[in-house]
Amino acid sequence: MATTKTFSPLTIRTPQFEAFRPELERQFVQRVCDWIADQHRNDSVAMSREVLTERVDSCIRRARSYGFNGKREVSLFVALDWRLGFEFERTAAFAWTQALLAQQGLTPVTRLYRIECRLERLAQVAADHLRDEQDA
């Protein structure tokens, strides 16, 4: 028997809901693209809408591979990828994020928060180091 989702006075069965999934996911990708384009409209590196859509779609697939399924955590992952660079977790500089991204027993938001905290600590250490060099 198919599971149902009830929205008074409408009942949508799971197979019916699944039929809409591709369109809903396409709309989500486009909303994320719109947000990125708006946030980075003054960046010197221009990107076509097609390239942006491919990159966001790839980020969303990677987020889901780490168990990030909700819109919020997927969006946070995409934003992190945008700030750190495409496929940041596969680069030498950010390889340490792989363990946190895959860590079991923590919510996706907690895993992303821990990455953000570590990035802040690393930035502070770098700033302190620069300040010490300037003082020397």
Q: Please, could you describe this protein's structure?
A:
The protein is mainly α and 136 residues long. The chain contains five helices and two strands, in the order ββααααα. It has helices at residues 14-39, 49-65, 71-84, 97-102, 108-135; strands at 4-7, 10-13. Helix 1 crosses helix 2 and helix 2 (49-65) crosses helix 3. The longest helix is centred in the last third of the chain and has 28 residues, at 108-135.
Helices and strands, with pairings:
Blueprint: E1 4-7, E2 10-13, H1 14-39, H2 49-65, H3 71-84, H4 97-102, H5 108-135
Antiparallel strand pairs: 1-2
Helix pairs in contact: 1-2, 2-3
Alpha-carbon distance between the termini?
A: 74 Å
Which percent range fits the helix content?
A: 55-70%
Number of helices: 5
Strand and helix order: EEHHHHH
Q: Sketch the major β-sheet.
A: 2 strands, antiparallel
- Number-wise, the strands total 2
What is the 3D shape?
globular
Attribute tags:
5 helices, globular, 136 residues, mainly alpha, 2 strands
Quick recap:
By secondary structure, this protein is mainly alpha-helical.
